[in-house]
Write a structure and sequence with these properties.
One of its GO terms (cellular component) is plasma membrane. It comes from Nocardioides eburneiflavus. It is a multi-pass membrane protein. By secondary structure, the chain is an all-alpha fold. It contains 16 helices and no strands. The chain has one domain: MetI-like fold, CATH 1.10.3720.10. The longest helix has 34 residues. The radius of gyration is 25 Å and the shape is globular. 29% of the residues are buried.
Length: 290
């Protein structure tokens, strides 16, 4: 009698299988969408970038070798790398801090602050550069003359380039970390707090490991954006050869001076650094991480 009351139940699928999205039946519309997306990415991204690589190596490695034999180009590449590293460090520190502030705390003006963080993405970099000149310009800026009196020049020097680059790249870090913080919640941090962990211990042992991939993606995007920034840097740098000319400014200069081979080679180097970072992250990230 007991056997008749027991109904066989279907065995639950493995966890990994349950996480997979349901399979969508392939229809002619599916193939049409695939074709449109592939064609869109090919003509807008893959083809133009590949042409830069092809033109760079028209004469073998001669154009790349010529870049490193030019002292001014070496200075420009070093300055771009220096600015990008500082921009990444500053945005990583303040980006994580602002993300924690937005996700973990409630305060008046939170929505306004959240909206302000998107301004660097919506405003033209030229406007950003002009705004920084109005505030930190050495002659007519609000703080510029005071800072210049202390011997600290911002505009037309490296600090101004770092400031402009950091400004335009700031949202990239925050928009990568905030969704991860919202997803992990605060349960583990509360459990650690109940066991006596202080704020620094909770951040170092629980929060930071949980958001490390968000920070990693933010660092990659910030690095790529910083290396390629042009508009704001052109306004605040002064474009002085061998001093404040970055690699992106050198690309424009070479192209306008009919040195297209040098412009292609410089652009190729900048693009390859960004692509290499993205590829490395794609290789080392866990398979179950989106």
């Amino acid at each position: 009698m007991a056997d008749t009351l027991i109904h066989p139940t279907a065995e639950a699928p493995p966890v990994e299988e349950r996480r997979r999205p349901p399979r969508v039946r392939k229809t002619p519309v599916t193939y049409l969408l695939r074709f449109i997306v592939t064609a869109y990415l090919f003509f807008l991204v893959a083809w133009p970038v590949s042409l830069v690589a092809i033109n760079t190596f028209d004469d073998g490695f001669g154009s790349i070798r010529a870049l490193f034999e030019d002292p001014d180009m070496v200075v420009a590449l070093q300055l771009s790398a220096y600015v990008a590293v500082w921009s990444v460090v500053i945005n990583a520190i303040f980006g994580v801090g602002m993300s924690l502030l937005l996700v973990r705390y409630e305060f008046p003006g939170k929505r306004a602050l959240n909206a302000l963080l998107d301004i660097p993405l919506s405003v033209s970099p030229i406007v950003v550069g002009l705004a920084l000149v109005l505030v930190y310009g050495g002659r007519n800026g609000w703080f510029g003359p005071t800072l210049a009196g202390w011997g600290f020049d911002v505009i037309f020097s490296t600090p101004g380039i770092i400031m402009a680059t950091t400004f335009v790249a700031l949202p990239l870090m925050i928009r990568e970390v905030v969704p991860v913080l919202e997803e992990i919640g605060i349960e583990q941090e509360q459990a650690a707090q109940s066991l006596g962990a202080n704020g620094l211990q909770r951040f170092w042992r629980i929060t930071l490991p949980s958001i490390k991939w968000g920070i990693t993606y933010g660092v990659v995007l910030t690095l790529a954006r910083s290396l390629g920034e042009f508009g704001a840097v052109k306004v605040v740098s002064g474009n002085v050869l061998g001093q404040t000319r970055t690699a992106t400014l050198a690309v424009e200069e070479k192209y306008l001076n009919f040195d297209q081979q040098g412009a292609y080679a410089t652009a190729f180097l900048l693009a390859m650094v960004s692509v290499a970072c993205i590829v490395i992250v794609a290789i080392i990230r866990p398979k179950n991480h989106p």
